[in-house]
Amino acid sequence: MRSPKDFFAPLALGAPAPVREIPVTPSRMIHFFDPGNEKMAAKVPDIAKKVDVLLGNLEDAVRADRKEAARAGLVAIAKANDFGKTQLWTRVNSLDSPWVLDDLVTLVTEIGDKLDVIMVPKVEGAQDIHYVDRLLAQLEARAGLTKPLLVHAILETASGVANVEEIAGASPRMQGISLGPADLAASRRMKTTRVGGGHPGYLVRTDPTGEDLTEGRTTYQQDLWHYTVARMVDACAMHGILPYYGPFGDIRDVVACEDQFRNAFLLGCVGAWSLHPVQIDIAKKVFSPAPSDVAWARKVIAEMGDGTGAVMIDGKMQDDASVKQCRVVAELADALAADDPELAAAYDAATKEALG
Ligand SMILES: CC(=O)SCCNC(=O)CCNC(=O)[C@H](O)C(C)(C)COP(=O)(O)OP(=O)(O)OC[C@H]1O[C@@H](n2cnc3c(N)ncnc32)[C@H](O)[C@@H]1OP(=O)(O)O
Ligand SMILES: CC(=O)C(=O)O
Ligand SMILES: [Mg+2]
């Protein structure tokens, strides 16, 4: 553990100083693509206009014999394009793999100035972040980078969950954490066989109403990921970094995908992954607050004045704690609306109606 006094010191001579605050730019969807897949790569310039984050994936879902092609493809795409405000991230291979060292050396030295965040899979504890932290500092110094790269961890091992608080605070580079439900299920020896989402067998049932135990008993499916997402959100909030839901693998089931994303949004996550173009608009819709919620938040803020005391608004008691929640929603809405005239108009129209 570094001394608090040294926490913000660069870890290599010539490396840029770490950031003091994680930049909070929109990241409602982290759109995954395989940079070695020519069909997908061809779509990237157009997709970049629709997403907050574009992520060149080098890890799982890229075949072993395509790892080098994916890495080279990402270098070529980054060099050939300027994605403007759309962030460019990558997911490198896991730290125990034969590819990760070349991933980091190549990407940082070739396109380190184009990359915003490096996603590290299968993080087990702070030691994994410390390793990446030092290596990145050395490579940043070699590449002459002036802006430090940020690090995002995937929460997808049982030990990662047990250590999530120390992972979140392991380095000033830590930008955020995503839930990785597929590898996490495997690591925990859960008996699911899918990528994220719920399971019909994970349920509670109402009490029996008579002798027949099968009659008249409603069942309610439960959220397999509630505990982990809530714990991840707390760890991230404690350390001033951003939590995300990860992938929803049933691409066809756009309805359940929206539900899973919304659960994460309500619990505090700022975004989720889109694996397929069809999931981009789902994430945009879910992780942009609804106009009616924004209008309500703005109304409470307006009526609460300096935020102290208690008032009744439409029959509901408001005080310091509820106005703080309203500020979270209103500030997020303002940040998103600043770059999206359509969203800004929807928020303003709903606010006008609510305020009369
Ligand atoms: C557990 C984890 O680690 S999750 C993270 C790792 N997984 C990933 O990154 C998966 C990324 N996504 C994909 O590989 C693909 O979307 C798949 C395999 C899920 C589905 O691919 P397909 O069967 O080709 O889907 P589909 O036929 O609907 O695709 C339609 C078009 O969109 C393109 N497309 C599909 N996914 C993407 C994407 N993520 N980004 C850009 N374009 C895409 C396809 O190439 C296809 O192009 P075409 O019309 O020119 O042929
Ligand atoms: C996100 C991811 O990598 C997983 O679910 O395993
Ligand atoms: Mg995984």
Automatic annotation (TrEMBL):
This is Malyl-CoA lyase (EC). InterPro entries: Aldolase/citrate-lyase_domain, Citrate_lyase_beta/mcl1/mcl2, Pyrv/PenolPyrv_kinase-like_dom, Pyrv_kinase-like_dom_sf. Its cofactor is Mg(2+). SUPFAM superfamilies: Phosphoenolpyruvate/pyruvate domain (SSF51621). Keywords: Lyase, Magnesium, Metal-binding. One of its GO terms (molecular function) is lyase activity. Its EC number is 4.1.3.24. Mg(2+) binds at E156, D183. It holds the Pfam family HpcH_HpaI. Transmembrane segments: none annotated. One of its GO terms (biological process) is oxaloacetate metabolic process. It comes from Amycolatopsis camponoti. It is an enzyme of class 4 (lyase). Gene3D superfamilies: Phosphoenolpyruvate-binding domains. The lineage of its organism: Bacteria, Bacillati, Actinomycetota, Actinomycetes, Pseudonocardiales. Residues 32-194 form the HpcH/HpaI aldolase/citrate lyase domain. Substrate binds at R91, E156.
